[in-house]
Specification:
The complex is a heterodimer of chains A (114) and B (112). Chain A is mainly beta and 114 residues long. Helices cover 0% and strands 53% of the residues of chain A. In chain A, the strands form three sheets. In chain A, strands 2, 5, 6, 10, 11 and 12 form a six-stranded mixed β-sheet that branches. Chain A is globular, with a radius of gyration of 14 Å. Chain B is mainly β and 112 residues long. In chain B, the strands form two sheets. In chain B, strands 2, 4, 5, 6, 9, 10 and 11 form a seven-stranded mixed β-sheet that branches. The chains are: A mainly beta (114), B mainly beta (112). At the A-B interface, strand 5, strand 6, strand 10 and strand 11 of A face strand 4, strand 5, strand 9 and strand 10 of B.
Amino acid sequence: AQSVAQPEDQVNVAEGNPLTVKCTYSVSGNPYLFWYVQYPNRGLQFLLKYITGDNLVKGSYGFEAEFNKSQTSFHLKKPSALVSDSALYFCAVSSNTGGFKTIFGAGTRLFVKA
Amino acid sequence: DGGITQSPKYLFRKEGQNVTLSCEQNLNHDAMYWYRQDPGQGLRLIYYSQIVNDFQKGDIAEGYSVSREKKESFPLTVTSAQKNPTAFYLCASTDRLNTEAFFGQGTRLTVV
């Protein structure tokens, strides 16, 4: 069965500092990994994805994520956090043996302090 | 503009009533999904559909029903059997397995 774990309910960083939001996954077959962001009372917005190729994936708003197959992780990173990055972040996974079913993590709330 | 539209944005239901949430997409996507989000919690999959006239239960399908009569539409009915329906409901669609999901803006359902 597919699963996604986001071990931190909340991440607090100071503006200008680097941020990391953690994600680990479990799938059978090749993983397709995604990060989304959600602002209050809104739907989710796509940030970036890993399908194949370079393990470091760059996405919207300066975010990037690193795929680590041996650690089954896909952590979201940004070199310098902005207050406007404060939001709820979701990691998601699907696989080539899981049909169209996409599974989301529980979400991590990022709080960037000025 | 292509996108996915949910309506209404806010919905109030009396106990014992069935209500239907609308989800329409003009992205020509094959797959559509319904998720439930509770305060401070992640997304839980209710139902998903890979093709017209076919759908599968997700992790929390009890008390919900869906239909997929058209590729563009995937309405969700919250029945009176759902004992705790107050939540934020999100509809999404994907083109293929490895493409990102597009989400609607959500419907907030409240039992009064």
